[in-house]
Amino acid sequence: MKNILKLKYVLVLSGLVALSSCTDLDQDYPEVNKPIATMDMTSATIAEGESVTFTVMIDEALSTQSDFKIDLLSSSSGSMDDFTTDAPHLDEYEVGPEGWQVTVAPLGNSVSFTITPERDLDPGEGTETLKFRLTQGQFGNSIVSGGAIDFTVTVLDYDFCLWNFSMTDLYGDGWNGGYLEVISDVEGTRAFYAMDEDGQVNVPETTTVEVPIAKNANYTINYVSGGGTGAGPGWESENVYTITAPDGTEYSDGPIPTEGEVVSGVSSCN
Q: Which of 35, 92, 167, 233 has its CA 20 to 30 Å from the CA of residue 26?
């Protein structure tokens, strides 16, 4: 009977040892044996409005997740308002100062995140440098190479020429499907149209917007009809616009604006 009990004890103990060996890389494993995290790059240069993707890699997959903290350093010439990121946000005091968190999923070995500097219309802002630091997260399942990795994003100022679009709806209820389309190499495709912002009708209403187009970009501005020849569905007889180029040249049309290209070329401010 004693031999049987001893055998059961040995089997249970062996099972616990085996279980421990299968999951030895958990958050309680000694610090020196934890997977090490590195980054695919530590610097990038992009223009406002562009995006850059960084990847955090660990040298050994785990059965549990590995999380990492990203902080914006105070030595940055930009602020948190100057960019967006798809990394989940961490509020202040949630895990130290306000920042972001990225997580390598269980059995995974990397995680990527994107940083996109905001495009603004301040021509004198100049080049900015966003400085970040990657450190070990709150769960501590992996460690960061060297204890922390600093990485930077150099942001080139958005260099643009400014157009003015004045779009009027003579009835006051906004354009019914018609719009001005701007296509450029840098900004892609954008649409602009008159809106009903005051809720009144039978009173003409004008929507005015400033439209930046990057310097030296190829661009085309089109008028796209809402349909019909003046009445419904597009009520084109209500649509009038004036486009003012950076050099002061005006392009006007309406009521019933001609559909198609209004102007095209290479963006220049004079």
A: 92
Q: How many residues does the chain have?
A: 270
For residue 253 the two structure tokens come to 């049309």
Closest CA to 126 of 155, 157, 153: 157
CB atoms within 10 A of CB 194: 28
Asked whether residue 4 is assigned to any structural domain, the reply reads no
- 243-262, pLDDT tens digit by residue? 999 999 999 999 999 999 99
Scan for tokens 């990394």, then name that residue: 87
CATH code for position 138: 2.60.40.2030
Chosen domain end from 113, 129, 156: 156
Number of domains present in the structure of the chain: 2
The CA distance from 43 to 154, in Å, is: 8
Q: In which domain, by residue range, is 174 found?
A: 160-263
Q: Look at residue 16 and tell me if it is in a domain.
A: no
Which residues fall within 8 angstroms of residue 131, CB to CB, at 6 or more apart? 72, 73, 75, 76, 150, 151, 152
CB 177 within 8 A of CB 234: yes
Handedness of CA 195, 200, 201, 205 (dihedral sign): negative
Q: What does pTM read for this prediction?
A: 0.68
How far apart CA 193 and CA 134 sit, in angstroms, is: 44
Mean pLDDT throughout 38-46? 98
Same domain membership, residue 185 and residue 92? no
> Does a structural domain hold residue 47?
yes
